[in-house]
C-alpha cells in the first residue's frame, strides 16, 4: 500500500510542537505526588509566595547550576507560568504601551501576540545563518529605541539556529549601549543532540540587561505550566510587584511543588537524559528521510537540538498551497508564514520530530515527498 492510499484517519501530523502522551513521565509524577503528599504539609495548596514555591526555587537553583556549569542563585529565580507567563510579566512590567519590542523575523508565533496584547509595537529583525543579524538589529534599535529585544538563542523555533557565544555577548553589549533588555527565550537550551549550545544567557544576568526565561514544558511535561525567570535580583524585585502575583500569590503552587519533588527525588536528570536520546534519534530519522530524491531542491539545517527542522520548499512552491495537497497524502505540517511577523517565508515549512516515533517520521516524510512531487506535476 502506498502512502497516497492510506486512510486519511492515519494522518501523520508533523506540525505539533510537543511530545506524544506516551513519552510523558507518568510514573515520575506518581512518585512525585506520593512524595509531596507524604510530607504532611498543606502549604502547597495555598496561594503561595509571590516568588514561587521556595522549595522549587532551591531545587531549581541546584539543577540549573549543574546543567549550566555556573552558579545560579536561588535569589535570582522567580517562578512563572512557563515561557508565555514569564514573557507576559516582563512585557507588563518593563515596557509601557506604545513602546517597541524587537523580535526575530521568524519566531515562536505566540510571542508577538503577547507583546501586542500589552500595547507594544512589534518590530521584526532579520536573521542570518548565525541568528540575529546584529548590524541590521543595531540600525533598528537606533530607529525604534526598543525596551525589549526578544530572542530564542538556542535551537531556535522554527529555524533551528543557535547563536554563538560571541554573538550573544555582542547583543548584550548593544543592550548596554542602547538601554534595552535582552529577553532570552531559552526553552530548548537543555535539549542538545549534537554540539552543546554556548552558555545560557543566564551567565550574563549580572549586568542587569538580561532576562532569561526557562520552562519545564519541553523538558518534563507541557501540562505543568511551570517555568522560571532568571534575572538580577533588583530586576526580579520589580517584576514581583506585578499585580497578578501580588493578588494571587505564587504561580501554580501545586504544579511547582510537584516539580520540586521531581528534582528532590533525582528523577529529573534521568528523564531528561532519556528524552534527549529519544529526540536525538527522531531528529536523525527525519534528517535521513529528507535525503530522499524528492527533497533534492529543498534546503534545511541539520538540528543539533530542540524540536524542529525548518525546510525551504522547491523554488516557487508555496507552503499554504502544498498543505491541502499534503493532507490528501496523509501528512500535515506548519506553514512558515505563521512564524513571521510580516507573513514572510511562504516557501518554508516547520517540521517537528518530537511528537512522532521514528517509523511515523519516516512515513510522514515519505508522504510529504509524494505531495511535493504531486505539486510539481501540477
From TrEMBL:
**Keywords for this entry?**
Aminotransferase, Transferase
Instruction: Give the Gene Ontology MF terms in alphabetical order.
Output: 2-aminoadipate transaminase activity; pyridoxal phosphate binding
Tell whether Transferase is among the UniProt keywords: yes
Report the residue ranges that make up the Aminotransferase class I/classII large domain in this protein: 10-368
Q: Which Pfam families match?
A: Aminotran_1_2
Under Enzyme Commission nomenclature, its number is 2.6.1.57
This protein is called Putative transcriptional regulator, GntR family
Species this chain originates from:
Deinococcus proteolyticus (strain ATCC 35074 / DSM 20540 / JCM 6276 / NBRC 101906 / NCIMB 13154 / VKM Ac-1939 / CCM 2703 / MRP)
Amino acid at each position: 500500500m502506498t502512502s497516497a492510499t492510506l486512510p486519511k484517519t492515519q494522518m501523520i501530523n508533523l506540525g505539533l510542537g510537543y511530545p506524544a502522551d506516551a513519552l510523558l513521565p507518568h510514573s515520575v509524577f506518581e512518585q512525585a505526588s506520593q512524595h509531596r503528599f507524604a510530607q504532611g504539609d498543606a502549604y502547597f495548596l495555598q496561594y503561595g509566595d509571590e516568588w514561587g514555591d521556595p522549595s522549587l526555587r532551591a531545587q531549581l537553583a541546584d539543577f540549573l547550576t549543574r546543567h549550566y556549569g555556573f552558579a545560579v542563585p536561588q535569589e535570582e529565580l522567580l517562578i512563572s507560568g512557563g515561557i508565555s507567563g514569564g514573557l507576559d510579566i516582563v512585557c507588563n512590567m518593563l515596557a509601557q504601551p506604545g513602546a517597541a519590542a524587537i523580535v526575530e523575523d521568524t519566531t515562536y508565533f505566540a510571542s508577538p501576540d503577547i507583546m501586542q496584547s500589552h500595547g507594544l509595537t512589534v518590530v521584526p529583525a532579520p536573521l542570518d545563518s548565525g541568528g540575529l543579524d546584529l548590524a541590521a538589529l543595531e540600525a533598528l534599535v537606533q530607529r525604534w529605541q526598543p525596551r525589549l529585544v526578544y530572542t530564542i538563542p538556542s535551537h531556535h523555533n522554527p529555524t533551528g539556529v543557535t547563536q554563538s557565544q560571541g554573538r550573544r555577548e555582542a547583543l548584550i553589549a548593544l543592550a548596554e549601549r542602547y538601554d534595552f533588555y535582552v529577553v532570552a527565550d531559552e526553552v530548548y537550551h537543555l535539549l542538545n543532540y549534537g554540539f552543546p549550545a554556548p552558555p545560557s544567557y543566564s551567565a550574563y544576568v549580572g549586568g542587569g540587561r538580561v532576562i532569561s526565561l526557562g520552562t519545564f514544558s519541553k523538558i518534563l511535561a507541557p501540562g505543568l505550566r511551570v517555568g522560571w525567570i532568571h534575572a538580577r535580583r533588583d530586576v526580579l524585585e520589580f517584576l514581583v510587584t506585578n499585580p497578578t502575583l501580588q493578588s494571587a500569590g505564587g504561580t501554580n503552587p501545586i504544579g511547582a511543588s510537584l516539580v520540586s519533588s521531581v528534582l528532590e527525588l533525582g528523577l529529573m536528570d534521568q528523564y531528561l537524559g532519556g528524552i534527549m536520546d529519544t529526540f536525538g534519534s527522531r531528529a536523525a530519522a527525519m534528517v535521513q528521510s529528507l535525503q530522499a530524491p524528492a527533497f533534492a531542491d529543498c534546503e534545511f539545517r541539520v538540528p543539533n537540538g530542540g524540536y524542529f527542522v525548518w525546510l525551504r520548499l522547491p523554488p516557487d512552491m508555496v507552503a499554504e498551497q502544498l498543505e491541502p495537497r499534503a493532507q490528501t497524502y496523509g501528512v500535515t505540517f506548519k506553514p512558515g508564514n505563521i512564524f513571521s511577523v510580516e507573513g514572510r517565508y511562504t516557501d518554508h515549512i516547520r517540521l517537528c520530530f518530537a511528537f512522532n516515533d521514528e517509523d511515523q517520521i519516516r512515513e510522514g516524510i515519505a508522504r510529504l515527498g509524494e505531495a511535493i512531487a504531486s505539486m510539481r506535476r501540477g
